[in-house]
Amino acid sequence: MQRGYNQSEQFAIGLGETMKIPVDPYAICRKKETETQTKKSRFRRWQNVAEVFDVTNPGSMEMKHVLIVDDVITTGATLESCIHALSSIHGIRISVATIAAAPA
Predict the structure, then answer these.
(1) What total number of domains does the chain contain?
(2) Structure pTM?
């Protein structure tokens, strides 16, 4: 929000164009706003995003292969929370793409 754009969404749009696949930036939504993750410990990051995401239209994702795009993986907390939200959808397959990973 501070940047004025979503860099993960821009990354996803580029991937979608290159791979010739649709991009839906609204497939997963935040149920609530959370504090920035940047200064949190690993454990606090997990707590900060637990149960934060919802799937907007689960039926449209049944039997689909979904690519979750994130800019940077630090602890994996955000991705795990998104995967958890998607995992109850019938027949879904989930892959992940990221630009960078923070050192462990």
Answers:
(1) 1
(2) 0.77
